[in-house]
Design goal:
The structure is a single chain. This protein is α/β, with parallel strands linked by helices and 134 residues long. The chain folds into two domains: 86 residues, 4-Layer Sandwich (Metallo-beta-lactamase, Chain A); 35 residues, no CATH class. Helix content is 33%, strand content 20%. A six-stranded mixed β-sheet has the order 1-2-3-4-5-6, covered by helices on one side. The longest helix is centred in the last third of the chain and has 13 residues. It starts with a strand and ends with a helix.
Length: 134
């Protein structure tokens, strides 16, 4: 795990490097996790948090709600008591388990059923109308 120390006394640890980086920010007795990784990495994520003696997370901040960044969110919330922070535009998707990754944006998603469904488009349109963007 790569570790950085800031001048203000915080430690930033890249807990799970790779396509879906997961970072831990620690300082002043508080811990914040950035992203939660895809579901299949849950054991590795939990093992690394245990190795770092992390048993409480104040926050889980999601950069976005694609499965490879947010799939372990519920487990993190339950296991570590984290409050989940996410952009308002994506909060409803996370709550409903909707993944808005457009079909065919990478090699893997070309083989998955499209996430661009009429229901997803309705959710997006509803949110954009609420915010006066349509």
């Amino acid at each position: 795990m790569k570790v950085w120390h800031t001048k203000s006394g915080y430690t930033i640890t890249n807990i799970l490097p790779g396509r879906s980086n997961v970072f831990l920010i620690s300082g002043n007795g508080k811990n914040i996790l950035i992203d939660s990784s895809p579901g299949y990495k849950w054991k590795k994520l939990k093992d690394r948090l245990t190795r770092l003696n992390i048993n409480k997370l104040e926050y889980l901040i999601l950069t976005h709600t694609h499965y490879d960044h947010a799939e372990n969110s519920t487990k993190i919330k339950k296991e570590y008591g984290a409050k989940v922070m996410v952009n308002k535009l994506e909060a409803e998707y996370l709550d409903k388990g909707v993944n808005i990754m457009p079909h065919g944006t990478n090699v893997l998603t070309r083989f998955l059923p499209s996430h661009d469904t009429p229901n997803t488009r309705k959710l997006l349109l509803k949110e954009f109308k609420k915010r006066g963007r349509v």
